[in-house]
Amino acid sequence: MYLGIDLGTSGVKAMLIDADQTVVGSASGREVETARRLAGWSEQDPADWIRATEEAIASLRAAHPAEFSAVRGIGLSGHMHGATLVDADDRVLRPCIMWNDTRSHREAAALDADPRFRKITGNIVFPGFTAPKLAWVKNNEPDVFAKVRWVLLPKDYLRLWLTGEHLSEMSDSAGTSWLDTGARKWSAELLAATDLEERQMPGLVEGTEPAGMLRPELSSKWGLGEGVVVAGGAGDNAASACGMGTVREGTAFVSLGTSGVLFAANASYLPNPESAVHAFCHALPNTWHQMGVILSATDALNWHSRVTGASAADLTKELGEALKAPSSVTFLPYLSGERTPHNDAAIRGAFLGLGHESGRPVLTQAVLEGVSFALRDNLEALKSAGTRLSRVTAIGGGSRSHYWLKSIATALNLPVDLPADGDFGAAFGAARLGLIAATGANPTEVLTAPATAETIEPEAALTAAYEDAYQRYRRLYPAIRAAY
Known about the structure:
With 484 residues, this protein is an alpha/beta fold. It is built from 18 helices and 24 strands.
C-alpha cells in the first residue's frame, strides 16, 4: 500500500492506493485557516498543517485499518512558494508566508531587475515566489531573518515532521527563484543576492526518489512496519500532473481550483520569462514543464457567491446547459493581482459594461467567461514560449460545471477531455510517487493517463463571438491599469 499526502491551501488530503494503483480510500483533516492581517497578506500556521495531517491519517486508518498497516511508501504534495522559516532547533520562527501573499512586490521587482535571476531560473521573480519573501523578512523582520537556519517549502516542513530530514525536490524548489532550473541545483549566486547561503536550503532529490524514512515514533503510532520510504514528491501542480499522467511532451491539463493553471509537460527546458510563463522542473528526472497561472479561478466564482448570497452551484445552474454568446459585460478576475501574463500584484478585478439589464445570471456568465479568457491569455503565453497544444484535460473543483468547461473549450478553441470517474489529483499523484520511490518502478510505466469519459468540443457557432469578447477583454487590462 502507498500513501499520498496533499497539503492544500484549505486543508490536507490523505489517499491510500494499492500496488495496482486502485484507490482504497481517502480522508481529509480540518480546514486550515488563512490569516489576512493586512491587505495583500496571506499566512498560515505550520502547526495547523500537522494537526490536519494527523486528523486525515487517523480517519483513513479508522476506515481502512488493515490496508493502512501495509503502507510501504509515502509521497508528498503541497502548495508551492510558501516561506516556512525554521531555526537551528527546527522551531518555526513566524507564520508561513503563502503563495498568494503579495506583500513582497517591491522586493520581487528589485530582484527581477537583476538579470541573473531570469537567466538562471528561467522565470520572472513573482511576488508570490519564495526569494522576495525572504528579502521582505530581512527588510521588515531582521530579528527573524537573523535566526533562519532553514528555508522550507510547506510540504517539506511536513517532511521534516515525518522524517526529521531537511530535503526538497526539483518541481517545488523551481518556484523559489533560487534554483538553477536547467541544471537542477541551487544557485549559490542567487542565494547570495538575498543574503542567504546554500547551507540554509534543504538538500535536493528528484520527486521519484527516496527522501527520508518515516520516523520510528510515527511508524509505531500509526501501526506501520519499519522502513517506510518517503518520496521526494512534488509541488501541487506537478503532483496533479503525475496523477493525470501529464508527463510526456505535448500533454497538458487545465486546473480549475482556487487558482487556475494551464500546465504542459516538456521533454526539454524551454524558458521564456518575458511571457510570464513558469518554466519549472517536473517531478521526473530530465523532464520540465511550462505553466501559466491565474490567481483567481474558482476563487472568483466563490467571491461572486459571497457577494450575491447564492451558492456557486445555484449560480451556474441559473445559466442552463446551453452555452450563451458573451454579453456586453466583461469581468476581469484580478481579485488578488495576476501572474500570467501580466505579473501585476497591484491590479484588481472589475466588471465593465454593466447596464440596467445586467442581472445576476449575466454577472455569473461574465465571471465564468473572465476566467476562461484569463486561461486563453495563458494559452497565448505558452505559444510564445514555444508550446503548441492540441487538447487539454480538465481537473479541479470547477471542472464539475459543464457550462464552464464549454466556455473554456470555446475560449481556447481546443477540445477539453474529462477523465473517467476517479480522483486523479495531487494526492493520487503523490501516492504514485511514493510507490515509485518505495519499489523502484519505472516512472513512465506508473504515471499513465486515465481513460477519457467525455470530450467537450468548442462550440463552433460561438467561436467568433468568443474571439470578439476575448479581444475586448485583452484591451481592458491596459485601460484599467492606466487608471490605477
